[in-house]
Amino acid sequence: MAGNITINFTVNGYKEVRTVNSWLSLLKFIREELKLTGTKEGCEVGECGACMVLLDGEAVNSCVVLAAELDGRDLVTIEGLAKNGELDLIQQAFIDHSAFQCGYCTPGMIMSARALLNRNPSPSDKEINEALSGNLCRCGAYVEIREAVKTCGKKQGRKEEARCP
Amino acid sequence: MSLKYVGTSLPRKEAIEKVTGSAKFLEDLYIGPLLYAKIKKSNVAHAIIRSIDTSKAENYPGVKAVVTGKDFPNRIGLYLIDRNFFAVDKVRFYGEPVAAVAAVTEEAAAAAAELIEVEYEELSALFDPREAMKPDAPLIHEELCRYELVPVFYPKSCTNIANHFKLRKGDVEKGFAEADLVIERNYFVPHIQHVTLETHKAAAMWGLDGKLTIWTTAQSPSAVRQLLAKSLGMPLHKIRIISNYIGGGFGGKAGATMEGLVIPLAKKCPGYVVRLVFTREEDIQGSFVRQALYSRLKTGVRKDGRLTAMEYEMIWDGGAYTEYGVNIVRAAGYSSTGAYDIPNVKTDSYCVYTNNPVGGPLRGFGMCEMQWGIERQMDEIAGMLNIDPLQIRLINGMKDGSSTASGQVVKHVAFDQCLKVVADAVDFGHKGGKYRGKGIAGMVKAPAQPSNASSSAIIRLNEDGTVHLLIGSTEMGQGMLTVFVQMTAEALNIPPEKIELRMPDTDFTPYEWQSVGSRTTYCCGNAVLKAAQDVKDQLYALAGPAIGVPEDELELSDTVVRWVKDHSRFIEVAKLANSFKKATGEGLTGPIIGRGSWVPTTLSNLDPETGQGNPGLFWTFGATAAEVEIDPETGAINLLRIASVMDAGQAINPQLCKAQLNGGAIMGLGTALYEELKLDRGRVLNHNYTDYKIPTIENVPDINCFVLETPEEGGPFGARGVGEPPMIGVAPAIANAVANAIGVEFNTFPITPERIVQALKEKARKEGELIS
């Protein structure tokens, strides 16, 4: 039965408390309640990856998660990557490598890439392929995407080294 | 002339928006008090509508309006006006819109649409165009002979043939008589879908002042406005079409598609915005599909490899409505020798109504389907004559001065170079292993457009010398925004960051026929250059007298107009642009606005009997090569690499140009290996991304792309279009590689492991028979 549930969570670094319908998908919640429209809907059944967000650092298809499951968790959407007016390294890498065309799959693709690079800053081609295989891009920007993720990983590695000598 | 901005790989103009999630697509906008639309669709492929009962839907809580075909019986169509917004009296395909609901929530709209009761009387249905074109087949469009059409299409009344394109060049009988070898094969190309990540979407608001505003994912807002105006009987200025970023087009969003579905609802709910978002299933079943093609190709060739004659019969599955498809059939007909110069040609290209999903454009506009047969047959011919597949293509390939099937003379052709580039890239001719093979395919494409399809551009020079460029082309990923900013920057000699360009809005941006056919770089580009020249002319007319030098000795350089002979004689652009006045205060001129209006002047109608004439604004040539490895046990195909080359004339932005080549190669390999709509009596069975598999990043082989630059006379900076062409040669190159690997000729695709295993078994059986 549908009912209302109160959820406490953080989104893009801010604490929020909301009341949601128990059947509402996380995707609809993000787009329609939080008004964060960068996250896209492509299939509604977890096949295309356009709605990928980070939930406690893991990339998930928000269309197949319920908003109610957000309680006590940390959500990052595409809008939360750039900080203090500066693009995240992966966003810049996507620009440098022209790793998108129409841009509809891009937010989801970037979130999957971010999750991968967070756990593995120097992924092999195979690891990139595995991590991004759930993100479809009909424009076929995969060659450029792979390059973007690879070079971003290297830059990120250098940045982290610089921080901890 | 050295170029400063054109030819450089600037980042996409909309790059930051697209990587930060701030790029607005239709559904991301707040556009007013919203009502949600849902469609009641037919669940039969061919039937008379006996009755529609909407009473339960109308009484459903939250419902604001319900419409059926009776509410708006006018037809709509680009070339052959055969469609209604909603079915009237009859449904002709599974999933055809029959009625619609607008409600305050999506759930209410969906529930109410389900409550609409439609009573059908089923008619015998046709799913194979070869059956449907027979004289005694039941008619799908009884009124075909009364449909309005552009008079370059030739429907056969009282049949299901929506267009019969005829081409006769030279003397085909004589050509076959001269041949040492005549080969004839049947080919089949299945239906496929665009499956753009963003589905089709539209919203409409009908103001009480009679103004209709439409937000749509359409590729071509000017065309949508024109088609709707005609269908609705409204003047153009009362219809406003607003575009946003489009999440992929590939032709699926060309012309007018589903905008008409929200209009009757909006008319019943003035002041509200009625929005319809196709689900993935609705998108796959109910939007344009790539037409299936059944073809028979017969070629005559001399021992030395020279082709002497070709006879090509193409039977296209146009689907239930062929308003757009008739032109694909025509384009395939007038291009029917592909990239080759063949003196004697007989082509019959038929667009046939069936009760399958509606056919329409898909990246290549018939060229992928038509050139599949040619490129497969070239390899078979090469094998029979024991000539290298590269060599036979070089012998017959078009060169400067060759003539196309329609007798159009082509210029600035470097097709032989294209072939050599990809052959070198894969070390063509050297087999890499027992079950490995290499294949090559050529390709050519011209935009398919009316001979007078026009473009326009306006350049507003702001008071500070920055620029707004206004055009009607749309951005669906191809890079239009970046390319036109670069062209404007080059033409005006001002930095790209001083130029603003946004998506079109027909109330503010000028006319563009359509963003299709890889034509806008060329066509809209020419309009942009004319507008830039107009700006410069106006600036020079003011600057000459102001600094005391002849007008024709001036140049624009970022912030100043200066004398070419002495750069210290200059005047600031900002001064000229900001309502320039005399030293004594009297005003001289108002704001500077550049106008660019362009239409092709080199195209002609085609002869109705012979198809001869000049249909191609420019011809983009290219080639693809592929290498595969087959596992003979499992049939698994390991696509090792693809090499692709296009002659872009001049790459405006080389990085974006290469992205088109990479993307086209990937889309092409999807069709070669995975994609096929599975239809059961017109119903699409694989209507999701799990069952309709498109390439993922894991399926991408080593891709090596090359851009040639043989300048196109008449193209802006020598450029020609490259959006669609990179897809065309991919499927045949892969099939040719498979044939080279295992000696099996595939005349259809996708080439799946099952088909490989089956073909190898068949081959072994035949060889066994030969031995015994």
What report would you give on this structure?
The complex is a heterodimer of chains A (165) and B (772). With 165 residues, chain A is α+β, with helices and mostly antiparallel strands. Chain A has five helices and five strands. Chain A has helices at residues 26-33, 89-96, 106-119, 125-132, 142-163, and strands spanning 4-11, 14-21, 52-55, 58-61, 73-76. In chain A, helix 2 (89-96) packs across helix 5 (142-163). The N and C termini of chain A lie far apart (56 Å). The model of chain A has no long low-confidence stretch (mean pLDDT 95). Chain B is α+β, with helices and mostly antiparallel strands and 772 residues long. Chain B has a seven-stranded mixed beta sheet. Chain B has a five-stranded mixed beta sheet with strand order 9-18-17-16-10, with helices on both faces. Chain B has a four-stranded mixed beta sheet with strand order 20-28-29-32, with helices on both faces. In chain B, helix 13 packs parallel to helix 14 (520-547). The mean pLDDT of chain B is 97. The chains are: A alpha+beta (165), B alpha+beta (772).
Q: What is the first-to-last residue Cα distance of chain A?
A: 56 Å
What's the end-to-end separation of chain B, in Å?
Answer: 71 Å
State Rg of chain A: 16 Å
* Average of pLDDT of chain A: 95
β-strand amount of chain A: 15-25%
**Element order, helices and strands of chain A?**
EEHEEEHHHH
- What proportion of the residues of chain A is helical, as a percent range? 25-40%
Give the strand order of the largest sheet of chain A, numbering strands 1, 2, ... along the chain.
Answer: 2-1-5-3-4
Total helical elements of chain B: 18
Please estimate the helix content of chain B.
25-40%
Please identify the structural class of chain A as seen in this structure.
alpha+beta
Strand order of the largest sheet of chain B: 3-7-1-14-11-12-13
